[in-house]
Amino acid sequence: PAVAECCVIGVHDRARGEVVKVFATVKPDQQLTLRELKTFLTDKLSPMELPRFLAVIDAGFPAQIERLRKLHREDTRSHEARLIAVFDVIYDAIVLSPMGRMAPLIAETSRVMPGVARSFYDTFIQTMHEETTGLVADGIRAGAFEAVDLEGLDHLIFGTPVNLALSRAMFDRFDDLAVTLDVERTKAVHLALILKLLTGAGAAATASG
Length: 209
Description:
The chain is α+β, with helices and mostly antiparallel strands. It is built from 8 helices and 3 strands. The longest helix is centred in the middle third of the chain and has 28 residues, at 114-141. The protein is elongated.
């Protein structure tokens, strides 16, 4: 009864070959545990069909969004320093966070769980884009950055981490994943190119940490 939307997939299991994993959103002011879900389903499914794993999706991403808002609206450092810090937040959220790693699943299940996809976009993706392009726009007005097409820049900034997240999800069983799809190296090169575009110089960008 607590479930608002859900999606079920099979995940690899060494002993059984494949087991059931449930991704779910819950109704307002509700909570859900794997034990509660299995109890609810026990008389409806066979033991083999019962879920072994549960992931409750919270598409709000409040911590990352708050970090971006502060960098855009409250931080007093230079626009370039703040943009470097923004890249740390973007890569942490889209590539490295547990919720970020669920982006491929959300893309695949958007028709089954439209509320999750809509919430993911409205409360996370769109807000991240607005805060990031807002910071760049402020920098352009202040003369710190060159004038650019903000919509095009938005795609340049977010396309790379999204592509990296999808690639890492596809090949997450590779033993050399950290080398072949290195997050820090990709972020550093990506950031340097964006800063070069915005400042008109070959900026030596480093992550803020």
